[in-house]
Predict the 3D structure of the following.
Amino acid sequence: MSPNTREILEVSGLPPEGAKLSRIWEWFVVAAVALLFMGAIHLHVMLTVGDWDMFVDWKDRQFWVLVVPVSMLMIPAALQAVFWHYFRLPIGMTLGAVLLLIATWITRIFGWHIWGYFPFTMGVPSTILAGAMACDAILLIVRSSLLTSTFGGFVFALLFFPSNWPSLAAYFLPVEHQGMVASVADMIGYVYPRSGTPEYIRLIERGTLRTYEGSTVWVSTFFAGIVCIFMHMIWWRIGLAFSTQRFVATSKRFRRFMGLADAVQPASKA
Amino acid sequence: MRTNQHVPGRIFRALILVLLWSQALPAGAHGERAQEPYLRTRTAQWYDVKWSVDKLVVNDTVIVTGRFRLFHDWPDAVRPPETVFVSNATPGPVFARVDSSLNGVPARQSFRDLQIGRDYEYRMVLKGRVPGRYHVHPMIAVKGSGPLVGPGKWIEVTGNQADFSFPMTAISGEKIESLETWGVSTAVKWHLILLGVAVVWILWWVRRPLLIPRYLALKKEREDLLTTNVDLAVAIGLLVVTVALSFGGYAWARSQYPRTVPLQAGTMYTAPLPAQAKAVDIRFKEARYDVPGRSMRMVFDVTNLSDKPLRLGEFATASIRFVNQHLPAAKANVAPGYPQDIVARTGLAIADDSEIKPGETRTMRVDATDAAWEIERLTSFLTDVDSKFGGLLFFFDAQGNRYIAEVGGPILPVFRKSA
């Protein structure tokens, strides 16, 4: 046991047995929280980002780099607030990103590949791990939610595209198909038919962001950074609000209506 | 005692569950009969559909060809075909699509501005991927309305899925061994590298007192114990590592794949097939659906505008074909191997089946009777808010030339046999 650990335990006032029990209890909490948030973050991402993260032929230069980081930041930012506010643990966003990536690969393997016959190439997921780790590190360095939102939120979005390009660049090689140019990602979307997902349904860059000689991705990235600053602020506060216990005063009539003992007891005595 | 009483019930429920589970077979078709009749009878009228084979081995191809007419009385509830994607309906990617076209124009991307009342010809090449027996349909998806499914045929794929591959060569020269696996190992390795750094960061904190002691220490305002200078140094190191990894990885990917292209998204355009000279003029009079008899009775006036005598050979709607069994040209128009479950056994009953002379106008009474109306769930037009039907009539001259006309209008139900 390090001197720092010993000192923390001493200051906490826990007896040795209590400290041991609290450690065991913590592992149960970690297991439960991990599963709960793995499901929650993944569900949230499926509902808000959906196809942009599911399919390789939706990962465009305009919307993917904007919508995905903005949405994927939300619950991890709330987790970051909870872990920092109550425990001074700067791991909330990293934990959220790790859980999300694990959950995503589980669904890609079991849902997409085994159940739905799709090849892994169709569903290579995006990851927010780099941005999340950077944001946690910034939190510990600046020790302020405002500055973390300002710098961490922006860096989170800024790192999204470069940290995903190593796993996705291969899908944007040009190929020729029926006399037309296509990216490998386009071909994967075309070769493996999704009956309910026609080509036109893709919400991707249609050439409307005509600027900086095709550097659409960095324009979107900077815009995503600005949005992520405010999104981090909002979800930090949502995290705190949902982890705060509040006792709401209720009337005797309401308690009796709910069948609560202190309200029912006098009536039964009477 | 209480628990024992529930044991038989629990065993029974478990057996039911196992039984239901064991009956849950993989889907071979995909609910095409669930599409409302107005979608199937009054939008795309599919004809001349052909499947090149009905059995193939993994990596072999089946070619699906045919035509569709966009029906003139397009339902109000369906968006007009302003943006259309030509596709195939199969239960998932059990076939790989090699290429497809509409009127010879590549159909990898969507088409714009298809014209109602006109014909289009499609072709798609599908490669067997997952062994099994599947219902394969041509399909178009209309933006704002969804898929319109054509006739389906059961096709069997044999062999081993592990043998499937889809190699390509990039314009920049890279050999893609198969679209099934291309780039996956790199993506997994990259994710594992990032996960490794993240796990080290989490373990750095988890190895120390985690929740309760930290919470209590924080309440006693001993925040100084919870994050040390070493933690700060590690955090700065983490920040440097993540930024370096991200931009280093980006630079590596740029060096590996210097020539990349964005997703391709433009729409395509093709003019419809040349319109056939109008050989017949149809004036719809009435239609009734005999519910107990499973029979549709139509009355319409036909005027032969051509210079040849014509006979009615077929009525086709919702991918069901009612063929005049007394007309050899009409029977020959049903390709060998065409799925017989969507060719009405009783054919087409015509009150006066004699030739319609050039210039003659005749009132025709036609019965299209078959259980297919029920099996294909087409009778729910009786409960639609827009109780109308539509279909194609195929007329033939003595030389076997075919002339297509549209027929359609309101339809009345007949609920009693005596009616």
Observations:
- DSSP finds 13 helices and two strands in chain A.
